[in-house]
Write a sequence for this structure.
């Protein structure tokens, strides 16, 4: 009886431990993606987009949309000349690099004085449309405005 | 003989005046040629490879400029058909910008091109206007003042891109209609024009012209297979604020490649420099000849009479 109890609690501990280890490992990895996203950063201009992240992960590698930020080698050879595999960024959110207002006075001034390579980072609106549309056209995904956007009120 | 208008005096003064006018016009001409556009002026880089022909820019322009509603909706693709003369659409008094569709064998998909005023660095419309209705602002816009316009429409002929349109519905209050870069509502506040903000694919990039040229060259250098190796507007018509990248040679999608590389003004400057000289010196010169010719016999008679008088007086 005592022996059985010990065995049971040991296996429970093991199970709990495994669950703990798995969840923490899962959390610490940036590649743990949400299954479903509401893209509403630009909802003042467009109806928000319900984005099925899990579905898209079946069609494209992370780097197709997230470039080099997830730690995968970037799929664009131009990016790959500098960004290597394994360099994981702090955040993979699109708006971190692609500005919501790409033509603000500060950004224009910054670009004019910049000696950096990246003077041509496309705004968020353009980044979404160009990246999504090019792939949707290539593999026959939906391309109409209302296929993704909810109609505006 | 040594009166106020003797032949020698007249020729001497005339020659001096000619030299002076020639010297001053030369000096003015040299100064005028050194203008290379305002520093830090703004522009737009149009990337035809990104345009999907949605006409959001047209709709945004219409709203921003308070233009009359279009004949067909902005999502009606029938406007891409050529007209009965086989010509694509042009901006007119109801639309400051239009998007046209081009089919070419060099691409497996249609290519769209937005047209509007290119906002030249040295605009031909401005130099052709004799009432100075046009202004090139330091921000880069070519704007127009309807209050002084007399409706001569010389600007419509001068423009190498056939952009200014006349509002024929208002003949007694002449009004040229053309894109003004959203100058009064946006550009003065450092904001991009309405079309740029509306473009969903950022086919229109707003910024300082110098930065846009750097961006354009970078795109061409990095993806030589995607772009034709030319930025239309870098040198065309002496340089324009709006610049164009294309995936196929620009000629294929309706760009006029015969537009000269110098400002249109260069072609008329030499002629225009002579105009003041002709207008000031020629009348004086020919009036002088005429007067000399008319005065000749009379003066001789008077001289004879005067000489006779003097002979008589000396004889006495």
């Amino acid at each position: 009886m005592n022996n059985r109890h010990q065995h049971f609690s040991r296996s429970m501990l093991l199970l709990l431990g495994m669950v703990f280890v798995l969840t923490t490992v899962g959390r610490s990895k940036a590649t743990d993606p949400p299954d479903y996203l509401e893209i509403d950063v630009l909802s003042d201009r467009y109806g928000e987009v319900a984005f099925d992240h899990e579905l898209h992960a079946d069609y494209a590698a992370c780097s197709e949309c997230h470039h080099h930020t997830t730690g995968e080698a970037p799929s664009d050879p131009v990016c790959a000349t500098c960004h290597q595999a394994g360099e994981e960024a702090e955040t993979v959110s699109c708006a971190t690099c692609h500005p919501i207002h790409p033509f603000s006075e500060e950004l224009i001034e910054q670009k004019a004085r910049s000696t950096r390579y990246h003077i041509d980072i496309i705004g968020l609106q353009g980044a979404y449309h160009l990246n999504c549309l090019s792939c949707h056209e290539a593999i026959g995904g939906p391309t109409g405005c209302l296929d993704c956007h909810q109609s505006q009120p | 003989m040594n009166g106020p208008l003797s032949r020698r005096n007249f020729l001497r003064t005339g020659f001096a005046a000619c030299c002076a006018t020639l010297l001053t016009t030369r000096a003015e001409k040299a100064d005028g040629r050194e203008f290379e556009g305002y520093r830090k002026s703004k522009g737009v880089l149009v990337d035809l490879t990104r345009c999907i022909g949605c006409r959001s820019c047209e709709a945004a322009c219409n709203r921003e400029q308070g233009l009359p509603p279009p004949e067909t909706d902005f999502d009606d693709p029938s406007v891409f058909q050529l007209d009965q003369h086989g010509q694509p659409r042009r901006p007119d008094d109801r639309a400051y910008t239009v998007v046209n569709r081009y089919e070419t064998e060099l691409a497996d998909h249609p290519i769209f091109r937005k047209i509007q005023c290119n906002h030249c660095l040295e605009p031909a419309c401005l130099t052709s206007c004799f009432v100075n209705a046009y202004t090139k602002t330091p921000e880069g816009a070519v704007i127009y003042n309807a209050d002084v316009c007399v409706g001569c429409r010389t600007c419509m002929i001068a423009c190498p891109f056939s952009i200014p349109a006349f509002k024929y519905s208002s003949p007694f209050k002449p009004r040229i209609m053309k894109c003004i870069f959203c100058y009064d509502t946006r550009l003065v506040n450092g904001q991009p024009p309405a079309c740029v903000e509306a473009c969903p694919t950022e086919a229109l990039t707003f910024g300082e012209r110098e930065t846009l040229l750097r961006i354009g060259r970078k795109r061409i250098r990095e993806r030589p297979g995607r772009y034709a190796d030319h930025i239309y507007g870098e040198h065309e018509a002496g340089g324009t604020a709006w610049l164009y990248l294309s995936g196929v040679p620009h000629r294929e999608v309706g760009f006029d490649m015969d537009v000269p590389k110098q400002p249109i003004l260069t072609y008329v400057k030499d002629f225009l420099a002579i105009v003041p000289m002709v207008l000031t010196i020629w009348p004086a010169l020919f009036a002088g000849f005429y007067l000399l010719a008319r005065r000749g016999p009379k003066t001789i008679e008077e001289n004879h009479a005067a000489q006779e008088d003097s002979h008589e007086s000396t004889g006495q």
Notes: Chain A has eight helices and two strands. The interface with chain B takes residues 78, 102-103, 105, 108, 111-112, 119-120, 122-123, 125-127, 129-130, 133, 145 of chain A (CB under 8 Å). The first helix of chain A runs from residue 2 to 28.
